[in-house]
């Protein structure tokens, strides 16, 4: 996957998606999440691929190992670049996800990179302690999941910018640190808790940023994208 920002296509139809993408042609990374995939199915991936986009399929699988393995085998055939599971599903589940991807690409397709979601960027310290009953600080929980993900053979994690540096130290610079929760200094946080600017992501060592509403909700999405891309690359 290219290192340019990954635009979250959180739309409820193919029609809205392709109307939005008119300003971008095939030169950007895109993310298809649950809303769009559940609405449009595999056909949306085929259309995006035809137009040349690099695709992160963000379905965050979390189930028993056998189910995740067989689902990944099917999803691998879509020809996507990046896909994910919840690290909380455990080592056996993550290994099964990899096996499924390997099996689904054994005919010669390139295996998509596989990453584990550590703690959602909409989660804060309080939620980790009170609702998940995790007694260590949130950053320790994220780091623990990152190490587990690496030990399971995966290519990286989804985390917030605030954990990118410690994960790089523990798991290496090559280990993917895909970071949503990106906000410009003057924009609202919405439902996100662990937010950061593109500049902060650049400085912290994130390998990729995922940006949704800061681009899709902008008056001029292409201009917002260019501004975010320049900040992320440290050229602004
Ligand atoms: O921890 C996570 C994992 C995934 N996401 C997804 O990223 C985008 C973020 O959208 P914004 O509009 O920029 O907040 C969205 O599709 C999420 O499902 C995440 O935010 N945090």
UniProtKB/TrEMBL annotation:
Record-level GO cellular component terms: cytosol
Molecular-function GO term, any one: orotidine-5'-phosphate decarboxylase activity
Domain Orotidine 5'-phosphate decarboxylase residue range list: 4-228
Catalytic activity: orotidine 5'-phosphate + H(+) = UMP + CO2
Pfam families linked: OMPdecase (PF00215)
Pathway assigned to this chain's UniProt record: Pyrimidine metabolism; UMP biosynthesis via de novo pathway; UMP from orotate: step 2/2
Highest taxon in the source lineage: Bacteria
Keyword Lyase: yes
Residues that coordinate or bind substrate: 10, 31, 58-67, 121, 183, 192, 212-213
Record key words, sorted: Decarboxylase, Lyase, Pyrimidine biosynthesis
GO annotation terms (biological process): 'de novo' pyrimidine nucleobase biosynthetic process; 'de novo' UMP biosynthetic process
Name of the top EC class for this enzyme: lyase
Annotated catalytic residues: 58 (for ompdecase activity), 60 (for ompdecase activity), 60 (proton donor), 63 (for ompdecase activity)
The enzyme's E.C. designation: 4.1.1.23
Family note: Belongs to the OMP decarboxylase family. Type 1 subfamily.
Role played: Catalyzes the decarboxylation of orotidine 5'-monophosphate (OMP) to uridine 5'-monophosphate (UMP).
Subunit structure: Homodimer.
The name this protein goes by in its record: Orotidine 5'-phosphate decarboxylase
Species of origin: Filibacter tadaridae
């Amino acid at each position: 996957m290219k290192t340019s920002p990954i635009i979250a296509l959180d739309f409820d139809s193919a029609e809205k998606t392709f109307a939005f993408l008119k300003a971008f042609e095939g030169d950007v990374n895109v993310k298809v999440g649950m809303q769009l995939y559940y609405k449009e199915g595999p056909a949306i991936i085929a259309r995006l691929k035809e137009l040349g986009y690099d695709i992160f399929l963000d379905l965050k699988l979390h189930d028993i190992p056998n189910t995740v393995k067989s689902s990944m085998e099917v999803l691998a055939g879509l020809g996507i670049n990046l896909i994910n599971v919840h690290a909380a599903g455990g080592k056996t589940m993550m290994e099964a996800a990899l096996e499924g991807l390997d099996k689904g690409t054994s005919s010669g397709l390139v295996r998509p990179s596989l990453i584990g979601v550590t703690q959602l960027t909409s989660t804060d310290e309080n939620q980790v302690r009170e609702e998940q009953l995790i007694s260590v600080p949130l950053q320790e929980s994220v780091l623990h999941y990152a190490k587990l993900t690496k030990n399971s053979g995966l290519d990286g994690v989804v985390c917030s910018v605030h954990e990118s540096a410690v994960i790089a130290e523990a798991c290496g610079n090559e280990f993917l640190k895909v970071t949503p929760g990106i906000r410009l200094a003057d924009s609202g946080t919405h439902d996100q808790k662990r937010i950061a600017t593109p500049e902060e992501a650049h400085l912290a060592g994130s390998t990729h940023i995922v940006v949704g509403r800061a681009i899709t909700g902008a008056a001029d999405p292409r201009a917002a994208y260019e501004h975010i891309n320049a900040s992320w690359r440290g050229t602004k």
